[in-house]
Amino acid sequence: GENVEQHPSTLSVQEGDSAVIKCTYSDSASNYFPWYKQELGKRPQLIIDIRSNVGEKKDQRIAVTLNKTAKHFSLHITETQPEDSAVYFCAAGGYSTLTFGKGTMLLVSP
Amino acid sequence: GAVVSQHPSRVICKSGTSVKIECRSLDFQATTMFWYRQFPKQSLMLMATSNEGSKATYEQGVEKDKFLINHASLTLSTLTVTSAHPEDSSFYICSASRDRVDGYTFGSGTRLTVV
Fold this sequence. Notes:
The complex is a heterodimer of chains A (about 110) and B (about 120).
Chain A: E1 4-7, E2 10-14, E3 19-25, E4 32-38, E5 45-51, E6 56-59, E7 62-67, E8 72-77, E9 86-93, E10 98-100, E11 104-109
Parallel strand pairs in A: 2-11
Antiparallel strand pairs in A: 1-3, 3-8, 4-5, 4-9, 6-7, 7-8, 9-10, 9-11
Chain B: E1 4-7, E2 10-13, E3 19-25, E4 32-38, E5 44-51, E6 57-58, E7 67-73, E8 76-81, E9 90-97, E10 104-106, E11 110-114
Parallel strand pairs in B: 2-11
Antiparallel strand pairs in B: 1-3, 3-8, 4-5, 4-9, 5-6, 7-8, 9-10, 9-11
């Protein structure tokens, strides 16, 4: 089955700095790579996703890159704000299943 | 957009009782729904995949007799935790996919506390 590794487990940045979270996956058949933001006690919210036929996707301050050859993908958040503080999960899979990374707790200090 | 509703949001039950959690897709038909369990400060662990009209597929280590899943319609899947024990206390979240384009939408989760 799929195995997803996510790093770092915690990340502290100053407001305005950039934050990068990296994930690797093991199953070359995976073709869908979403990123979720989860605040304490709430449901994961999809913030951006990328499919295997695309190498990069950007949505305002958030971008995701995918390297299928190396089997890794990354989340980039620019101009971080305190409200970006949350736990972020990467996931890899397809239409029938999704495997999550262990999460990254991002703390943005004012 | 796709909306998934999950009820109840919180439930406290006594050891030995059963608890049913509902997951509904409100504005789309979901042939497949997924049930996850999340312990504090941990990731989401897939428990089972629920397919409408057929038996659920359980992940390794998940007791199918303890976590009963029913997907009776294209908009409703239920998870019943039978004979609950304190170690079953956790955050349970369902998700569903409308189609192969939109990806997965999560329910709001259910915080189960067994006392």
